[in-house]
Amino acid sequence: MAKEITKAEEFFLRKFDLDTVQLERTIGWALDRQIDYADLYFEYRTNEAVSLEEGMVKKAVKTIGQGVGVRAIAEEKTGYAYSDEITIKNLEEAARTARCITTDQTIGKSVPVRSGSAGGGARPDLYPMKTPVAEISVQEKIDLLNQIDILARRYDPRITKVMASFSSEHKVILIATSEGLIVGDIQPLSRLNVTCIAEENGNRQVGSYGGGGRVEYSFFLENRRFEEYTREAARQAVLNLSAVDAPAGTMDVVLGSGWPGILLHEAIGHGLEGDFNRKRTSAFTDLIGKPVASEICTVVDDGTIPGRRGSLNIDDEGTSTHRTVLIEKGILRGYLQDKLNAKLMGTAPTGNGRRESFMHIPMPRMTNTFMLAGESDPAEIIRSVKNGLYAVSFGGGQVDITSGKFVFSASEAYRIENGKVTAPVKGATLIGNGPDVLKRVTMVGNDLRLDAGVGTCGKDGQSVPVGVGLPTLKINDITVGGTQG
Amino acid sequence: MIPYENLAMDLLKKAKSKGASAGDIVIVEGDSFDVQVRLKSVDKLTNAHEKRLGLRLFFGRRTAVCSTSDFSTESLDRLVEETCYLARCTAEDPHAGLPEPTPLNPPDLDLYDDSLRRWTMKDKIDLAVQAEAAAMGCDARITNSDGASLSHADRRVIYANTNDVVGSYPVGSVSFSVSPIATENGSMQRDYWYSAKRKVKELASPESVGRVAARRVLRRLGARKIATCEAPVIFDPETAAELLGSISACVSGYAVYKGASFLAGKLGRPAAASFVTILDNGTIPSALGSRPFDGEGVATRKTTVIKKGVLENYLLDSYSARKLELKSTGNAVRSIGDVPSVSHTNFYLVPGANTPEEIIRSVKRGLYVVELIGFGVNHVTGDYSRGAVGLWIENGELTHPVEEVTIAGNLKNILMDIEMIGNDLELRSTVASPTLKIARMTVAGN
After folding, report:
1. How far apart are CA B127 and CA B204, in angstroms?
2. Domain end among A241, A259, A287
3. How far is B355 from chain A (nearest CA, A)?
4. Is B298 within the bounds of a domain?
5. Residue A291 to residue B325: CA distance in whole angstroms
6. What is the pLDDT of residue A403?
C-alpha cells in the first residue's frame, strides 16, 4: 500500500500545485486554542456508466468530481466547509469557516504532517489494479451489455424487456490531519446490473440481479459472471409470474444465505453505530456486555476483505479498517466508531469513519457486515419449518434506530409447508424489532455467503457502498406483511 | 448575458465544430448552509460553494453526457472531446434529440428570497435551538433529542442549447426541522416535524414546529402490535403524500414506455375513485416544486394527471414523449451528470370536503397511519406492502398507538378504494395530499 499512498499524495500536490507546507499551514488555519482536531480531505473522482434498454446502449455518461473538505472539531461540535476548487485561497477560506464553531479568533500554528500508513502498519493493498477499469474501452463494455440483452431474451420468451448497466468509479483521496498524518488511497469500484421484465397474459413481473466490487473488469468475465447475473435476473422475473400473494401474520421465517444479510445491516448494524449510542438515541444504547441475540449468533463488521464492495484500505478519516466483532455468541461486544465518537465515548476508532464525498462530514458507517457460519445443514433448517416463509432475496430495507423497528421487502420468497419449499410469493414484507429479532434465531446454517456486491447504504443523506453476508438462518415468529390473512 | 451563459454558448460552438449535430448545457452554481444543533449546542455546521456543468451532445441520433466541477479551459476542452467520443460509441436511437425549439420566456415565479442574506450565523443557529427547546419543553417524557437543523441553499440555474434556447433563473429554499425523543416505561420513540419554504417569511415559527414535533412523538409512546386484520386505513397528509409519490413515479413517461409501471397503457381509463383528481403544476408562485422551465429548456405547466378518476396524462420530457407519441409536459429533470429523466413539479391531490376529524369519525375500527417505513412498493405490479406506525381507531375515536405492523394492498385497488378525501391540503413539500381514507387494506401484525 505504501506505493499507493505516495501516488495519491503526489497526484494531488502536482495536480493542484500544492506542497506539504501549504497543507500544514491550512490545518493550522483551521485550528485555534479551542479546536481539538482538524483535517483536510481531498477527493478526485471519475464515474463512468453505460446502460442498455430496448436492445440498445443509448446512454453513456461520465462525471468528474473534485474538491476538498476542511473539518474542525471542538468537543462535540464539528465545523465543516468544502469547495470544488482546490486552491490555496479556497483552502484558507474553508479552514476559517470550519472553525467558526468556536469563538476564539486566534489562528493556530501550522502543523507538521508526515506520510504514513494510517497507524495500522503496512498491509497489502486490498484492491490492487493491474488495469484500471477506465482503461477498458467503452466499446468493450457496450459489447458486454449487448451480449447480456441477447442472453436474457434467450432465457425465456416471456422476457420482454431487458435493462443492463455497467458503472465504474475511480476515486483518489488524500487525508491530512492535525495529528500529523498524511495518508491517501486509490479506491476503484465497479458494478454490473441486470433487470428483466417478464410478461404473460397481462401479468408483468420484474427481476433484478447484479454484482461487483473493488475489482478489475475481468472479474465480470471470469466464470462468465455476467451470464450468471443475467440468468438470475431473468429467472426471478419469470418465477414471479407464477408467484401468489404473500401471506400475512406471524410465522417462522428462513432467510437464505448471502444478500438477506441486509437484515443484519438494517436491524442490528445501524443501531450499533457509535454516533447513535453516544447520543443515546439507539435502541441498543447501554447494551454492551448484554445478550442481544441467541448464543449461536456471532456478527462482525470487516472492512479488510480483499476486493469487496464494502472494503477499504483506510476509512475516510485515514484510519486503517478493521474486523470488529459486534456480537459474540449472542453478547453485544462493540460499536462501530469514527474518530469523533470514539473520543467522546473514550474508546478507539474502528476504521468506520466514512463519507459519501468531500461534500460530506464523516460518520460511523458499516463496511462488510455479516454473521459467521453455524452448524446446521440448510436443508435441515427448511425441513424444521411447518408453516413459514423462505426469503431468498430482498429489494431493500429500513430501520427506525430509536424504536428499533425494521422493515424489509422480499423480491424472491416462497412458502414453506410441512418442511418443504412450495409456491413462490410476491409482495412479502418482514417487520420486526432490532434488539429482539436475533434472540429468535433458532438455527444458523453452515453456508455463510457474502452478497454479490450491489449494496448501497443511506444514512443522513449520505450513500456509501457496503457489503452484507449471512448463512441460512431460521428466525421464529416474525411478522410477514402480505395481503392474504 | 452573464459570463456562464457565454461560457455555455462557447462550449456548444466548440462541440459543433468537432462534429456534434446538437447539444445542450446545464450549469448550476450556488451556496449552501446547514447547521445541526443538539441539546442547545452546535453539533455540525457546513458551509459550501459549488458549481457544476453538464454537457449533452448529439451526433445525429447518438448521444452522451459528461459533467465536471472543474471549469478551467483545459478541463472543459477535454470535456467536449470526451463527450464527443462517448456519443459516437452509443447506439443510434431514433427517438433521441433536443425538444422542439421554442423560445424561452421564463415567467418570474418568485423562487428566490434574498432576505436570508441578512441573517447572521447566530440567527440561524438560534432558530434551530429555539425549535429544539420548544419541543423539549413540552413534556417531561421528552428526555432526549436527535437534534434540530436549519438548512438553506441558493442556486442559479443556467440552460442553453444549440437551438438558441437560453435561460436562467435564481432559486432558493430554507428549511428547519426538529427530532425529539420521548421515553416511557423504558421504550423510546422518535418523531419529527419541519417547515420548508422558498420564502423566509413563509416559514412556520420555531415554537410551532417544536410543539408539533412534541405532539407527534408523544402520541407514539406505548405503541403496540395488533392482530392481523382487514380494515379501513386513513393516511394522514404526510403519509398520503408518500403514497402519492409512488403514483408520481408510476406516471413518469420513462416507467410507462419501459412497461415498468402498473399504469402503462391505461391512458383514458379509470385509474382511481371517481372523485379523485391529481395535478402536477410547476407554475405556482413560490412553491417548492416550481420552476420556470424544465431540465431541457421547456416551459413548465399545469398538467391534469388524473381527472375525476380517469388517467388523463403522464408526466413527460421530450424523449419519453416521443417514445409514447405524445407531447412533453415540461417535466424533464436533470441531474447535472446524467441524461434527462422525468419528475413531478408540485404534485398533489385536489382536496375534498371532509375535515380530518370527520374522516376519523367515519371509521368504526381501523388504522390512522402517521409514518411509513421500508421500500415495499413495486411500481411494475402495483404491489404495496410497507411498515406502518399509527393510531388505532375504535368507534370513530383515536385510541392507542400501533407499531410493528405492515399495511398491504395493490396501488390499483388503493386508488379505486379511496373513500374520503380531506379538506386539509397544504403544499408542505413537492408532493402533497390531504388526508385520505382507503376503504380496506390488509394490516399484518400478530
Report:
1. 11
2. A241
3. 29
4. no
5. 61
6. 87
**Distance, in angstroms, between A90 CA and closest chain B CA?**
10
Interface of A with B in 378-397 (CB under 8 A): 395-397
Across the interface, of A67, A78, A485, the residue whose CB is closest to B43 is A78
Segment B148-194, tens digit of pLDDT: 999 999 999 999 999 999 999 999 999 999 999 999 998 899 999 99
Q: Residues 317 to 346 of A: which have CB under 8 A from any B CB?
A: none
Residue of A nearest to B34 (CA): A80
Residue A274 CA to residue A362 CA, distance in Å, equals 12
pLDDT digits (tens, 9 = 90+) for A172-210: 999 999 998 899 999 999 999 999 999 999 899 999 999
The confidence score (pLDDT) of residue A485 equals 61
Pair (B203, B65) in one structural domain: yes
What's the average model confidence in pLDDT over A415-436?
A: 93
Task: Provide, as residue numbers in chain A, all residues whose Cβ is less than 8 Å from the Cβ of B67.
Answer: 61-64
Indicate if A218 and A305 belong to the same structural domain. no
For residues A237 and A358, the answer to whether their CB atoms sit within 8 Å is no
Structural domain includes residue B341? no
Q: Which residues of B touch A100 (CB under 8 A)?
A: 45, 47, 121
Residue B239 shares a structural domain with residue B130: no
> What are A253's three cell numbers?
421465517
Chain segment A130-186, per-residue pLDDT in tens: 999 999 999 999 999 999 999 999 999 999 999 999 999 999 999 999 998 899 999
Scan residues 400-439 of A and list those with Cβ closer than 8 Å to B: 400-403, 405-409, 426-429, 431-433
Q: What is the CATH number of the domain that holds A61?
A: 3.30.2290.10
Q: Give the range of the structural domain holding residue A31, as residue numbers without chain letter.
A: 2-241
- A-chain CB neighbours of B387 within 8 Å are 398, 405-407, 429, 431, 481
- Alpha-carbon distance of B417 to B439, in angstroms, equals 5
* Partner-chain contact B380 A206, CB within 8 Å: yes
The total number of structural domains in chain B stands at: 2
Residues of B in Cβ contact (< 8 Å) with A62: 64-67, 82-83, 86, 337
For residues B190 and B234, membership in a common domain is answered with no
Place of cell 421465517: A253
| CB pairs A-B closer than 8 Å | 259
Q: Are residues B233 and B96 in the same domain?
A: no
Burial of A12 (0-12, 13-18, 19+ CB in 10 A): buried
Question: Does A248 sit within 8 Å of B444, measured CB to CB?
Answer: yes
Question: In this structure, are A205 and A250 located in the same domain?
Answer: no
- B145 in the same domain as B213: yes
Alpha carbon distance A261, A444 (integer Å): 13
- Cβ distance of B41 and A77 shorter than 8 Å: yes
Partners of B63 on chain A (C-beta within 8 Å) are 58-59
3-class secondary structure, B177: strand
Q: State the complex-level ipTM.
A: 0.89
Residue A244 falls in which region: left (phi positive, over 0), alpha (psi -120 to 50) or beta: beta
Distance CA B235, CA B436 (A): 5
Among the partner-chain residues A67, A160, A433, the one whose CB lies closest to the CB of B69 is A67
Pair (A13, A25) in one structural domain: yes
Q: Scanning every residue of chain B, which has its alpha carbon at the shortest distance from the alpha carbon of A67? A: B69
Read off the pLDDT of residues A432-463 as tens digits, 9 standing for 90 and up: 998 899 999 999 999 999 999 999 999 989 99
Query: How many domains are there within chain A?
Result: 2
Instruction: Give the span between the Cα atoms of B199 and B116, in whole angstroms.
Output: 9
**Same domain membership, residue B239 and residue B188:** no
Using a CB–CB cutoff of 8 Å, tell me whether A15 touches chain B.
no
Q: Are both A210 and A277 inside the same structural domain? A: no
* pLDDT tens readout for residues B350-372: 999 999 999 999 999 999 999 99
Using only C-alpha atoms, chain A has a radius of gyration, in whole angstroms, of 24
Show which of A241, A270, A291 is a domain's final residue. Answer: A241
Nearest to A280 among B83, B144, B384 (CB): B144
**What is the domain extent for residue B356?**
229-243+352-444
Three-state secondary-structure class, residue B14: helix
* Residue B28 within any structural domain of the chain: yes
CA angle B164, B170, B171 (to 5 degrees): 125
